[in-house]
Amino acid sequence: MPTVFILFGFTFKFYSNDYEPLHVHVLKDGNKAKFLLSPVTLIENQGFKPAEIKLAESIIEENQEVIAEHWNRFFNKEQYR
């Protein structure tokens, strides 16, 4: 499970068996969410409050390129479009 980064207590990661479309998992305090990367869209939420989802979403929006680079490097993909 490669971790992309940890920010404000949120862990942003992929799972080794993940599949496209490009997405990122967010974990914090036993809560989980999954976001599509482009456009940034909440796919799944297990326990996060709306304010936490909004914060996680803004972090993802600001770091889309970093997340895509980690995804491509881990999964040996061409440059994300």
Outline the structure in words:
It is a single chain. The protein is an alpha+beta fold and 81 residues long. The protein is built from 2 helices and 5 strands. The chain has a 5-stranded antiparallel sheet, with helices on one face.
Count of individual beta strands: 5
Q: Name the beta content range.
A: 25-35%
What share of the residues lie within helices? 25-40%
Overall pLDDT metric? 92
Q: How big is the Rg?
A: 12 Å
Cα end-to-end separation: 23 Å
SS element count, helices? 2
Approximate shape? globular
SSE class:
alpha+beta
Strand order of the largest sheet: 1-2-3-4-5
Main β-sheet, in a few words? 5 strands, antiparallel
Instruction: Report low-confidence residues grouped into runs of 5 or more.
Output: none
* Quaternary class: single chain
Order of helices and strands: EEEEEHH
What is the domain total for the residues? 1
Ordered list of secondary-structure elements with their pairings:
Blueprint: E1 3-7, E2 10-13, E3 23-28, E4 31-36, E5 41-46, H1 50-62, H2 64-75
Antiparallel strand pairs: 1-2, 2-3, 3-4, 4-5
Could you give a quick summary of the protein structure above?
The protein has 81 residues and is of the alpha+beta class.
State the main characteristics:
33% strand, 81 residues, five-stranded antiparallel β-sheet
